[in-house]
Amino acid sequence: MKKFVYCILIIFISILTVSCVSAHGADITDDTMIIANESNGVLAKNIVDDMGLNITVYKFKSDGDVEHQLEHALSNPNKRILAISYQDTVEAYLNDHADLKDRVLVSNDDNSSIADSAKKLVEIDVNSNADNGDNFLTPLIVGLVIGLLVGVLVGVVVLKNKK
Q: What pTM was estimated for this model as a whole?
């Protein structure tokens, strides 16, 4: 009976220590991109190609898809976005998430606006937002502490059962 209680305790602690995995999905888009729709996607692609800029144009079909992409931008500090379509959706999202305003631009879909905004987009320095590896140190320390605690508990159970 004692062994069963220890096993349940170890399983419960293991479940508590497992980090949550977001069901949001993987981001498969490039870090520098233009949000377009069916009517202005080809125009944007031609302008970007003529300027020789390394920007990928994605055609979106709904406001939900655009919001989903902006959610990816929240977790990816390297993502730069120019929205020439769905401007209202992007503006509303930026009002709720002010930290994206330095990496997400909204532009009209005429030739000169796209060209000017595309230049501004590639000039955005995403490296200034980096925190010099601080995001690595915290999870490392937390993982070591959790591993140490679980290891000690498993060691105690194994040693008690050996006797």
A: 0.64
